[in-house]
Amino acid sequence: MLKTAMFRGGQLCSRVFAVEFDLRTEPLYFTLSSNPQVLHHAHQQLFGDEGKLFSLHVHCDNRTEKARTHAEIKHKLSVTLSRDCDVFEASSFIPDVKNSVVKGFFIRDKSTTTLSEDMLKTLQQSKSVCVFSYKREGQYCWQELWSPVNQVEESVRQYITPAAAAEHHPSTLNIRNSDVFYCMKEAYEVLQECTDIIPESKEVLKLVDEQLETSRGDGFPVIVIEGLDATGKTTLTEALRESLNATLLKSPPQCLAPFRQRFDSEPPLIRRAFYALGNYITAAHIGKESLRAPVIVDRYWHSTAAYAIATAVGGRVENLPKPGSELYQWPEDLLKPNLVLLLTVSPEERLRRLRGRGQDKTVEEAELEINQLFRLKVEEAYKRIQNPACIIVDASPSPQEVLQQVQHLIRNKMSLVTRQDKKPCNPSTHH
Ligand SMILES: Nc1ncnc2c1ncn2[C@@H]1O[C@H](COP(=O)(O)OP(=O)(O)OP(=O)(O)O)[C@@H](O)[C@H]1O
Ligand SMILES: Nc1ccn([C@H]2C[C@H](O)[C@@H](COP(=O)(O)O)O2)c(=O)n1
């Protein structure tokens, strides 16, 4: 069977290919056609005369294997290919069809070495990796299945045909249950599928199981504090604990701390499932603690969803799922807080605070610093999450002033909250 036939969702020709050529602009979109097509100027920039061109795509039925293979290839490409090679994120998808995305990379090799071919030769031996090469003739360019020894099963010329931008950026099509989980069962199943390759998954699942008996009763208010790193969440949540005589909880909860680094090194599917489960454990703690006192929570589902969406979506803020998208909806089975406050400071003030703190930066924090686009996407995704939406708090004044502002907000908002607003927490029947 032709390897390309394994691409999900039917014929290769009905698929659109997207190459994230320049992160600040739209991806370059193209389809394939058996008729030669003259390339547009934009496409000539990518398919122009310079270098050898390849793309590779990872397609496999087992989602955890697929995610890990993609991450491994990304790592290999970044450490192995020389400075003469450009590697771009690429994907193939059926416009506006959920879960139709096949992720991969586009390689432009301007070197005179065979480094990229050697590497592709090894990768191509895996049945879940499909490699194409691109050839040029005058104004035309075509794609064909690549083989290092020219023994392609069925070498068909498919001409590159410029295509219009899709309404929904391709990276938004696979977010549900790959980057963001909308019920506990879905995240739980991902970790169940990993128990052989990541033994720690069993321990995490055991901790989740132990919390399930706890159910939510009506009680004191639950207030979540959200924001990018160094916006002042720890400072504020501790001050609120004192002033409200509240219980302070965090997501992920302390019991998951020994596993966090392990899951942070995994691809998004597994990493995000871990954080999603952390929210359910914290929800169980909230259920218990809110019977005794007000509860302050340092990060919760808004963080999980906003970081996951911003990481999954390539390029510009405009590529995020549109406001009102179902991807911003709160999971049905996760305890809802009464109030969510989003701390915001200017990028300059945040950097000042990060530097003042002088701590080691996590990879993601470092990325935030250098990646303005990512920071903007996280903040915008926070603001688009609905039901409950977050209330924006200007956290640039002094800690005392921020505390007073928030106390005022809590007093005002909580007087509007009736007990009926709190939804029951019963993350049960997951397996
Ligand atoms: N209102 C404020 N004005 C000036 N500095 C502040 C203010 N709030 C916090 N800081 C300082 O900014 C730094 C970051 O604050 P904090 O640790 O509370 O942020 P955070 O949001 O919890 O960060 P992270 O998510 O990375 O843990 C600390 O050095 C803290 O003392
Ligand atoms: N409820 C949560 C809490 C955190 N995360 C992820 C998002 C970031 O990658 C990172 C930030 O956490 P911090 O460094 O401030 O401890 O953790 C999440 O997904 N869900």
UniProtKB/TrEMBL annotation:
The keyword ATP-binding applies. Keywords: ATP-binding, Coiled coil, Kinase, Mitochondrion, Nucleotide biosynthesis, Nucleotide-binding, Pyrimidine biosynthesis, Transferase, Transit peptide. Pfam families: Thymidylate_kin. It is an enzyme of class 2 (transferase). It is found in: Mitochondrion. PANTHER family: THYMIDYLATE KINASE (PTHR10344), UMP-CMP KINASE 2, MITOCHONDRIAL (PTHR10344:SF4). This is UMP-CMP kinase 2, mitochondrial.
